[in-house]
Write a structure and sequence with these properties.
The protein is of the alpha/beta class. It has a single domain, classed as Vaccinia Virus protein VP39 (Rossmann fold, 3-Layer(aba) Sandwich). It is built from 7 helices and 10 strands. The chain has an 8-stranded mixed β-sheet with strand order 5-4-3-6-7-10-8-9. The protein is globular, with a radius of gyration of 17 Å. The N terminus is likely disordered.
Length: 248
């Protein structure tokens, strides 16, 4: 997608400047469910259903519990203005959110303050974060980074022993290209220029990339779309999919 650049500290970074600028320009109405990020608002409940199920299974939590992440730390990479960070906090986690766009981090901080939520937001790349976290998430991010291989290695480094990694991304299929780029971007449902089909990653390659990063895939689930059900979890991986992984 783009050659690897370097951070201010001189280390390789996952950040692609034009991607950060593109998403930063959307900060103003990020929390508007009918605004430019409306598709993310539709995706978020689907992702949360999957995440909650995987958390309950991984840590053998009571599925009826309201705070299954209590006492655990979570890192959301590419957090935007906090659509996932806020529910993770409500599920009990001590949450850190990082994003390359300072405009999004400013919007995230303002919204969290309005909700009375304490979330540690930072405008940087994952490689600049220290420490390890019980849960690491990266939703719709890996297709926007300079090096998927390096990005996954950085995620693996941030994952604590016994922790859980969950990410989502479009599949590299004609169906995903049609719905995500031709139709969604073409008709303004997603801001034009958001996606580059050449950066989409098929599940089999994702599994190999994770293995190279020292991660082991334990579950894969699709996100499908239909007129009757809208976006929903499915065994159909053609459009978009979620992956859960643990340290190898």
């Amino acid at each position: 997608m783009a050659e690897t650049s370097t951070s201010l500290a001189g280390a390789p970074t996952s950040i692609v400047a034009r991607e950060a600028e593109h998403f930063g320009a959307l900060a103003g109405d990020w929390w508007d469910p009918h605004g430019a990020s409306a598709m993310l608002h539709r995706l978020n409940p689907v992702r949360l259903r999957y995440l909650r199920d995987r958390v309950d299974q991984h840590w053998q939590e009571d599925e009826r519990g309201v705070r299954p992440l209590a006492g655990r730390t979570a890192l959301d990479v590419g957090c935007g203005a906090g659509l996932l960070c806020e529910p993770l906090t409500r599920l009990g986690a001590e949450v850190t959110g990082v994003d390359a766009a300072p405009e999004l981090i400013a919007a995230a901080r303002a919204h969290a303050a309005g909700q009375g939520l304490a979330i540690d937001y930072r405008a940087c790349g994952v490689e600049e974060i220290g420490g390890q976290f019980d849960l690491v998430t990266a939703m719709e991010v890996i297709e926007h980074v300079a090096s998927p291989e390096g990005f996954l290695r950085d995620l693996a480094t941030r994952l604590a022993p016994g922790g859980l990694l969950i990410l989502s991304t479009p599949n590299r299929t004609a169906w995903a290209k049609l719905l995500t780029i031709t139709l969604a971007e073409g008709f303004g449902r997603i801001p034009k220029g958001t996606h580059d089909y050449g950066s989409f990653i098929p599940p089999e390659r994702m599994t190999a990339l994770m293995a190279d990063a020292g991660l082991r895939v334990v579950d894969t689930m699709g996100i499908a779309a239909s007129p009757a059900r809208g976006l929903h979890l499915s065994e159909d991986l053609r459009l978009n999919y979620l992956v859960s992984a643990v340290g190898g």
